[in-house]
Design brief:
The structure is a homotetramer of 375-residue chains. Chain A is α/β, with parallel strands linked by helices and 375 residues long. Chain A has 12 helices and 14 strands. In chain A, the strands form 3 sheets. In chain A, strands 3-2-1-4-5-6 form a 6-stranded parallel sheet, with helices on both faces. Chains A, B, C, D: Its EC number is 1.2.1.11.
């Protein structure tokens, strides 16, 4: 990671008392240049000190720097000094609030699903497709009224994030994929708090997560696809991997694991013959992200850690490696139906959520999308 | 289930103090015509009363009928009055002991893997391929010396058993399958006792079970295949689904569930166009087993229970349905990569182990393979 | 258990779609003489068939007999043919509804806490204090207006129920206790559904259950106490063990167990010297309940099962013994601070809830408190 | 914590591949002045590089500094340059090996139970009784032959360690205790690896841990007691709290928690009237350890963290606070049987094991018991 001398950026956190919000606060309280300046939550929490408003569920105490910050309602007026606003809002309120922040010329990095399918909102997994920042100017220009600074940028669903990193590495090394089967075993923390009742998941597997399979199947295409000219109007569009149609089939399961989504993945390459397991292992290990290359302080040194042991990765042992910012892969081997199969582990509350948003914001700083930090 | 007036059959249990042995004893103690007559275990247990020899791990007490039975070593001389011998032996000793019992003209129904790949030993999932009993005469005849009564018959690995039932139902209704992807989430009881250390599996997934993927991929072909003429020598051979090659790819995981293996399955049919999800649902629900049709008392009324709710089957809620003798399927839907995908649940300690052996023995009685019961 | 030829009693279930209500329905659907006649739930469920109204969370299917029963609102008019009404209502609504049923001359057996502290409502653990039925006439007489048939009778909190059975056995054998320390390890099912979020209890212990310690400390005194003359007014009152003051100190913990409350108990007897551990073991094993002696069909043959093994009882292995209707005790040994200590296990959803209510209703039938069944 | 400029001390680790050994290695690899110099394990591991010999079960990778260290057998000759030897050996071999090391003039800090009851071996919980180092000279002098440097010093059992810290704080503030009831809920990691089979503990409580209750009841007296003159022979002896007899009764349970022992404790003071809950809270929070006062780098800033929330401490949320080096207490309240009750949480693999040994070694350095570091 190259050195940096970035100047301080004031940031806000929306949904600050929720599960994702608490992670934002933990991570941001140790960030080299993002400084928590404003917290937003529901009107029930507004006016209280953070330590009183929150039901803190993290394994380290509330950071001293936010303990006494007063929580505000999620209105742009309270965040106008923030160079970046992180949103950990629930999807039932995220749509309107994030839109209001954008109109107010604020820059929103959102974990919510609301704008992921918007044709002008980048859906960026920071270890994969930072090139999609290129859509930001068009988002601003086509907004009514046109915006100078404000934009919304989303990161992916937690289970999408895990799988898309090795898929991107494979496409980079071996060309387009043709099909991909994914079976997930997802942690309970992916459902937020209170989330899954213990009576539903102890000594059990629930073979269904509402909307999750569709998210993986759709988001993966947007992320792995490029940006193409959209006809003759001079506009750009996400191409949804359209040049090389990619069929994705996901099966999602909830398992009694606290943190870390495990996914069994099998892929078929367009290229014949396909690469060998050893070639795949090497390509995965060699993959580097823009985020790390550009010097994002939260980027993991090893984008993908490739395990050699037969029984890894495992969520309990591997989810905290590199503070959960990278992705672990193991059991790379031949598949008798498609070409190659392997196991992916990604920390759903780190790279699968808050860490991705923060990395996207770091990329925005480096790429000059945060006004006061542009060169 | 038709009525029956089968006369009593004395049975023995090998490995009686182990996990599978305990299940045999629980089930057999309530059986309408099998009567526990002899128990075999290691020399460490031999000479003790069963209740003293066993570390009982079941949720109901040791059945009164076996509490005071004296445990013997696993030698044929102690079992010579047994019409049927059930083996719950570990694979490290099962090979030699089961062979010795066969030479002594005893009939062995084994849960161990040792003889599953033997070209003359049927590998029978009783809800699927009872026709493979037809190999028994050849097994006896080719034995050296030839046997009059003795034979070994195995049931399948617990994770194979679950998946092969719906696959058989689909092939029966829609013709041969072309490929099949299976991802399992297997219960800890599948590993016996002491089995998985709690430190390895609590709050965790272990994405590897030694030898398991190979078992599913190989055993399924033997079970779903037929029996063909083996050249000009007048002999028969298992055809391993050879007329319609079937590619199977399995990924096996251990999850923190006590009982019940959940499997995500996706299949491609040879037939074009493939059946619709609704047709598949109907075919699965309509499938009936020989075991039930013939009147086996342990056969489930519903071979396959097809769930309509989006989030079923679940191991904790569905594993005990029909005393774990049937198989549950849910989430039948289209697959974007193959044709149809669904979720299977099978109770690994019931239909996946002891219940299958007992059903096979019931079939043997009905089909006349137990000498004193032949007509 | 003596034979019985009790005639059929129509029963209703309030809170029929909830956790306790589902247990009532499972148990009552197999009852020899209680027949489910009416189901009550919130207005959201009213008018629906039971199978559509309920989110069924039991491990066996919805009993056929209630599947198509139409759910009503919890109003007496819909239950007027019921000889007995079981209430599994939440305490936030139980107070008003149960009162309305009583005024309508209905007989209510309640699991809710609302009337447990009422000076005229018996709080009966059926394996302990069936003598408290004697308060029913006074409850009817003092009601305004006086009632002919209607009354409310409650059973105890689930953790109280477990401990009070062996305490009653000890007092019966050895005279009054002087003090008692109780530390509970309670199952998640004790909190109902959705109850405890999985994020709060997986890989965790929560050393606090709101109101639980007070319930144990207070209810135990009411249950173990007698009924005394209340001054000169000819009335009776519960004496709260007042003749021999008993100090009880409870510490309640939630642990990651699905069903079965485990409690570590230590007692000091008034009598000096105290009984030996062996005497205590014998007294516990010899204890019999009125419920069993009188022939209640749901009464367990062994009121208290005394384990000899060092590591029992355990919730997973012992909670289903006798269908959860009895209590298990183990590790009876000397205590260096008080006199004797031991471990109790009681199934919180069986004897700790629905089974107790049903047993109380069976006692009411036998004792002549259900009008049409009085002699 | 005062600054320090201690010079480097070479250390060895016995049982380096085991559960406790792995923790020693993790902690020592980040230590300011202890430097891992030699590793000992069984002959099966000897000769291998550490990374090959170990089945690493920690959540962070094998530290680079030991990855390639060659493992030796546990013989003093391989450790002769070590100023300190840490022993994580199992008790079945610890007795002989630790004795051999002492004879070889090595200084052993042991986690094993073998020498805890030795009348000349200090049993030191570093947050409590560092004064017991005073027994070291006598241990050396009475050894046959007398030793110049060598000695053995043990730390306490993990469940003893948790409870003895608040008990010491209470005795320091309010004078001697008279009796103490302890009920533990202990994590599976306390049993080492492979330790508890998952089939024994998932969805379960095991109300028994072999030898554990006796350890708590005995060790607590040795730790809380002083050192007295042993008759007229000029020798000293541990007084086992003999001036003020203290009755302790422990009940030990295993629960499905990975790390962190929770204990419900109730105490009676000799002093009448006893302190109030608020006084107890203040005394616990104010308690400081010699280890911290003297500047041990591994000592926690807060010896005892006193929680105000009703439902804390909880093992999952609180076990990693201060890297598990302190003890958490909550729910301080009146007890109806004794005086005051509360809940203690201690990290069994940190302060309950390796961290205590390391703190004891740090104390030894500061107190001048490590020869080359004496002043």
């Amino acid at each position: 990671m190259p050195p940096h001398d970035t100047k301080e950026v004031k940031v806000g956190v929306l949904g600050a008392t929720g599960t994702v919000g608490q992670r934002f606060i933990l991570l941001l309280s140790q960030h080299p240049y993002f400084v928590i300046h404003a917290l937003g939550a529901s009107s029930r929490s507004a006016g209280k000190r953070y330590s009183q408003a929150v039901t803190w569920k993290q394994t380290s105490p509330v950071p001293a720097a936010v303990r006494n910050l007063v929580v505000n309602e999620c209105k742009p007026e309270f965040f106008k000094d923030c160079g970046v606003v992180f949103s950990g809002l629930d999807s039932d309120v995220a749509g309107d609030i994030e839109s209001a922040f954008r109109i107010a010329e604020l820059i929103v990095f959102s974990n919510a699903k609301n704008y992921r399918r918007d044709p002008h909102v980048p859906l960026i997994v920071p270890l994969v497709n930072s090139s999609h920042f290129a859509m930001v100017p068009q988002q601003r220009a086509l907004h009514s009224p046109p915006l100078k600074n404000g934009f919304i940028l989303t990161n992916a669903n937690c289970s999408t994030t895990g799988v898309v990193v090795p898929l991107a590495a494979l496409e980079k090394a071996f060309g387009p994929l043709e099909s991909c089967m994914i079976t997930t075993m997802q942690a309970i923390s992916g459902a937020g708090y209170p989330g899954i009742p213990s009576l539903d998941i102890m000594d059990n597997v629930v073979p269904y997560i509402s909307g999750e399979e569709e998210k993986i199947e759709w988001e993966t295409l947007k992320i792995l696809g490029g940006i193409a000219d959209d006809g003759d109007n001079g506009l750009k569009a996400f191409d949804m991997h359209g040049k090389h149609p990619l069929r994705i089939s996901a099966s999602c399961n909830r398992v009694p694991v606290i943190e870390g989504h495990t996914e069994c993945v099998s892929v078929r390459f367009a290229r014949r013959p396909p690469p060998s397991p050893q070639q795949v292992r090497e390509a995965l290990a060699a993959y580097t992200s823009d985020a790390y290359a550009l010097g994002c302080p939260s980027a993991p040194r090893h984008t993908i850690f490739v395990h050699e042991e037969a029984d890894r990765p495992q969520p309990r042992l591997d989810r905290d490696y590199q503070m959960g910012a990278g992705v672990s892969v193991g059991r790379v081997r031949q598949c008798r139906v498609l070409d190659i199969k392997f196991v992916v582990l990604a920390n759903n509350v780190a790279i699968g959520a808050a860490t991705s948003s923060i990395l996207n914001a770091e990329l925005a700083v480096l790429k000059g999308y945060i006004p006061s930090h542009s060169t």
